[in-house]
Fold this protein.
Amino acid sequence: MEKEEKEKNKEIGRIRREKKREKRLIEEKRKKILVGITYFHNTSQFDKKDPYFINSVKTMGLTKSKVRFTNSHYTKRLLVLDEVISEYEKYDHNVNIMITTNSEEGVRYIKDNFKDRLFSIELPKICLKTNYHLPWATINNMERYKDKYDVYIYSEDDTLIPKNAFNAWLEDTNILWERKLYRIFLRIDEWNESEIYNKINIYNRKYGQQPVAHCACWSMTSDQFDFYLKGEMSHLTEDLENKYCKEKSDVFMDIRVLASSGLVADPRLVDFKRITFKRHNHNGYIRLMENGVVSEESKVFHLGCKQFKKKKKNKM
């Protein structure tokens, strides 16, 4: 009887050690991620009398069907931002979310709704001449945490990066970066499968490019982020605007788009220039399926896009 008890305790001890080992291995695979979100708070559209807005601030209790019956810009954006944050919370990693907004009123608004779910809420630390410069303030705030995270994600407040899309990016990014190619996402309101070009095959996995490299978000490893910060395209300067933001220039890219495109146009990686009105020579690659069609795991969603809203409505 005593021998059986010892064997039983021994087995229990073995199971506990195995569970601890499995837990440790899972933790080792978890990445520490900083997400920087740009949220522009347009005070001219702030409707304090809207009952749906007031209700959403207090309880987050609005449904999508109710939102259709109100003109409150902020109520709709609240639901969109909640959806974006909720997706990050599904990641199998340690995610800290930092939101940069343009006004004290915006800070209060975000705090009222999302304070307990965020790492920090920031105002710009650089001078902004126009609202289109706000993404650069987000990047500037993210730079303070250089070398403290494994992955850095930038996105606008209505851009959703699904969990499966991020996991696929994580699998691909180092494979491409070894060749100084940059793994990007594909925003579904701007893609066209017939326009995939420059297809390559690496380790039996297919990648390709598409004309529009801007998807309102980017993701970088710590090494890529360090490389990015050392380049000319990571900081807002007059020289940068003069070089890239003149509409008739071969290297034209809107200043807001430039901030949210990561390394796709970095001159250290590619001779970036406009080939046609809609097509640039850039350095961004997306994952393709075996038949060369865009993989679902490459796609991110622009929740503010009317086309996407219409598709979602039709599915309901």
Notes: The CA atoms of residues 16 and 139 lie 44 Å apart. The longest strand covers residues 32-39. The chain is about 40% helix and 20% strand. Confidence is low (pLDDT under 50) at residues 43-71, 306-311.
